[in-house]
């Protein structure tokens, strides 16, 4: 388990109801790359909302801390792990000095906390990040530049990490422009990325 969290943020202890709420399906980007997260890891889900990713991560045997400023949303999310109510846009970063095996962020961007967020990755920790990009203002919300990634911005933000996968794409249902990245706070000896023997046929 990560170390305790300092500060005056409100923490809501987990409880376990008989049934889970019906939540949206988890991001396909998360489910595609979550195999990189070691079993029984401790995961930070930033801007977790009502807990759709916390629910899925918990079902994979992972231990999740969800952070969000919406206390009513956390009332649902707390069913799937520990939660922390904190407004990271208007108050000090609540997790200084605490690290996780993985950090998950979807549909959220607040650039001033980027350095602090990356500091939450343990050595060999996995970052799975997906959010809206420039162009989205032509199809819907969000439309403000503050909340839209610039071209290849995620790659630049992850310049000190090992980037495993990156996409800058237009998706449907609903229509949206997104960037998404998987990156590891890793060295070249990480066995998760050992190259398999080549199966390509020689001409």
Describe the structure concisely for a colleague:
The protein is of the alpha/beta class. It is built from 5 helices and 8 strands.
Description:
This protein is of the alpha/beta class and 203 residues long. 15% of the residues lie in helices and 28% in strands. It has an 8-stranded mixed β-sheet. The chain starts with 9 loop residues before the first strand and ends in a 19-residue tail after the last strand.
Question: In percent, how helical is the residue content?
Answer: 10-25%
Q: Count of helical segments?
A: 5
Instruction: Write down the secondary-structure element order.
Output: EHEHEHEEHEHEE
> What's the average pLDDT?
86
Give the oligomeric state of the chains in this entry, treating copies of one chain as homo and distinct chains as hetero.
Answer: single chain
Question: What does the overall shape look like?
Answer: globular
Specify the biggest β-sheet: 8 strands, mixed
Radius of gyration (CA) equals 17 Å
Please indicate the percent range of residues in DSSP E strands (runs of 2 or more). 25-35%
**Helix/strand class:** alpha/beta
In which order are the strands of the major sheet placed? Answer: 1-4-3-2-5-6-8-7
List how many beta strands DSSP finds: 8
End-to-end separation in angstroms reads 52 Å
Report the uncertain regions. Answer: 195-203
């Amino acid at each position: 388990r990560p170390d305790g969290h300092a500060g005056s943020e409100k923490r809501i202890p987990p409880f376990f109801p008989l049934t889970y709420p019906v939540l949206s399906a988890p991001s396909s980007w998360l489910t595609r790359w979550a195999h990189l997260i070691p079993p029984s890891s401790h995961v930070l889900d930033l801007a977790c909302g009502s807990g759709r990713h916390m629910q899925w991560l918990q079902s994979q045997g992972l231990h999740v801390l969800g952070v969000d400023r919406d206390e009513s949303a956390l009332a649902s999310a707390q069913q799937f792990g520990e939660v922390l109510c904190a407004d990271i846009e208007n108050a000090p970063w609540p997790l200084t000095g605490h690290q996780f095996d993985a950090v998950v962020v979807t549909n959220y961007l607040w650039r001033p906390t980027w350095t602090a967020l990356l500091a939450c990755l343990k050595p060999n920790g996995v970052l799975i990040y997906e959010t809206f990009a420039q162009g989205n203002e032509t199809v819907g919300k969000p439309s403000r530049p503050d909340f839209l990634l610039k071209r290849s911005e995620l790659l630049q933000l992850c310049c000190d990490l090992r980037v495993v996968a990156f996409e800058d794409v237009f998706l449907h249902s609903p229509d949206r422009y997104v960037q998404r990245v998987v990156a590891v706070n890793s060295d070249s000896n990480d066995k998760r990325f050992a190259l398999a023997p080549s199966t390509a046929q020689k001409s």
